[in-house]
Amino acid sequence: MFRPNMFFLLLLPPIIFESGYSLHKGNFFQNIGSITLFAVLGTAISAFIVGGGIYFLGQAGVIYKMSMTDSFAFGSLISAVDPVATIAIFNALDVDPVLQMLVFGESILNDAVSIVLTNTAEGFFSGSDNSTVTGWETFLQALGYFLKMFFGSAALGTLTGLISAIFLKHFDLRKTPSLEFGMMIIFAYLPYGLAEGIKLSGIMSILFAGIVMSHYTHHNLSPVTQILMQQTLRTMAFMCETCVFAFLGLSIFSFPHNFEISFVVWCIVLVLLGRAINIFPLSFLLNFFRDHKITPKMMFIMWFSGLRGAIPYALSLHLGLEPIEKRQLIGTTTIIIVLFTILLMGGGTMPLIRIMDIEESKSRRKNKKDINLSKTKKMGNTIESEHLSELTEEEYEAHIYQRQDLKGFMWLDAKYLNPFFTRRLTQEDLLHGRIQMKTLTNKWYEEVRQGPSGSENDDDEAELL
Q1: Rounded to an integer, what distance in angstroms lies between the CA atom of residue 340 and that of residue 200?
Q2: How confident is the model at residue 339 (pLDDT cuts 50, 70, 90)?
Q3: Read out DSSP for 138-170?
Q4: Among 143, 166, 182, 267, which lies 20 to 30 A Cα-Cα from 389?
């Protein structure tokens, strides 16, 4: 049997950290307002609609009757979207980068928000004595608890990331990449353990630590460790994701099910309705403030890409519901919703995008790429140029003065934060980095030449060069 603790302590952190670490910062922070609104307010709207719907339908005797707390806990856990299939198809089809970033950014933050909301519903309502407080007071207390979890965890993750940047700036471990890599792994997991220890959200803090570490700490690493870090994280995230989906498939046969057709059908209807009430009004509202408008086609694709993944399933196992048939009912319903959205909506995304013509027309002509259903990118895109910094102190200063268009936080970051948290390379460092890379390449090249398939023909080699 799949234990939720194993999921939350071992399988989820690498997935979330990697999504923060390999995030395309530019697009993410340009759309941060929209992403946050969809992820926080949108998820809350969706949770309230699903939770409220289940509670009132239960009271009316249409479906299985559940308490207010259980309904909202279920509403919160089923609101975590995980558009793995959608993101993979977006990558393969070259859709609008803004649409891609809105769906991806929302899914990253939304996992954390959903977990915090579920814990709020479960921990708060079950822990408080509801007989004496009014509904309004309960709501305000729950909101306070949620904000404390959200901002406390984010601050803890950011702080850990900044400490790691200062540490690796002043302790020069570039000559020993294995030690450097070890420190990075420790700093990556540290905020998760700390946050869980002090009853905050580990997922939220490890996400922010990932974003901060890739922005500052990454530039303090030697070139070898930079590549090693990205590849290792991607491999770990991919493996964890695969394990989780394998567990999800096996879970169909791993515990006794309690299947109620009315409950399942109403839940699916409420989930789709909640997603629609989240996406369409919020997009309409955001278009008043956005330069790059969210078109009705994009809204429809965003609504359609609300796939549910492994997180709702793990959360449903985590809920300590009594009696046992209620727990089984929630578990069974969650699995059915996850499979329904992944197989039906995930499978329908590609034809839908083709029909709706979201793809760039010129890319469609040359587009016969294979689709790899994972958030992991292919090797070509892995070592992003923004991640291999090769600017010395003087070059960096010149670079800043050329870019007069930076405003607000971007300007503050470029002028003060970046120089403070990242080390500017001296000519000697650059030379050392290049020698390190060259040595590695030569070593690999020698091994290839000596191998069984190595071509000894110098003419071929010259032609290749």
Answers
A1: 32
A2: confident
A3: HHHHHHHHHHHHHHHHHHHHHHHHHHHHHHHHH
A4: 182
> Does 457 reside within a domain?
no
**Identity of the residue numbered 301:** I
427: Cβ contacts below 8 Å, ≥ 6 apart: 392
Q: Is residue 419 part of a domain?
A: no
* Sequence-ordered list of residues with C-beta below 8 angstroms from that of 436, at least 6 positions apart, any chain: 222, 223, 224
Read off the pLDDT of residues 403-427 as tens digits, 9 standing for 90 and up.
Answer: 556 666 677 777 778 788 887 777 7
- Crossing angle (nearest 10°) for helices 202-215 and 12-21: 30
Range of the domain at 241: 4-127+141-362
Per the CB < 8 A criterion, the answer to whether 51 and 79 are in contact is: no
Written as six digits, the tokens of 313 are: 């399933």
Q: Which of 43, 54, 48 is nearest to 81 (CA)?
A: 43
CB-based contact 31:257 (threshold 8 Å): no
SS (H, E, C) 54-113: HHHHHHCCCCCCCCHHHHHHHHHHCCCECCHHHHHHHHHHCCCHHHHHHHHHHHHHHHHH
For residue 299, give the CATH number of its domain: 1.20.1530.20
Closest by CA to 72, choosing from 47, 38, 94, is 47
Please tell me the predicted confidence (pLDDT) of residue 387.
44
Residues in the chain, overall count:
465
Residue 136 lies in a domain: no
C-alpha count within 13 angstroms, C-beta hemisphere, residue 49:
20
Give the per-residue pLDDT at 342.
Answer: 84
Top mean pLDDT of 126-130, 192-196, 222-226 is at 192-196
Q: Under a CB-based contact definition with an 8 Å cutoff, are residues 399 and 424 in contact? A: no
Q: Into how many domains does the chain fold? A: 1
With b meaning 16 or more CB within 10 Å and e meaning fewer, what string describes 98-133?
A: bbbbbbbbbbbbbbbbbbbbbbbbbebbeebeeeee
pLDDT tens, position by position, 4-28: 778 788 888 888 888 888 877 777 7
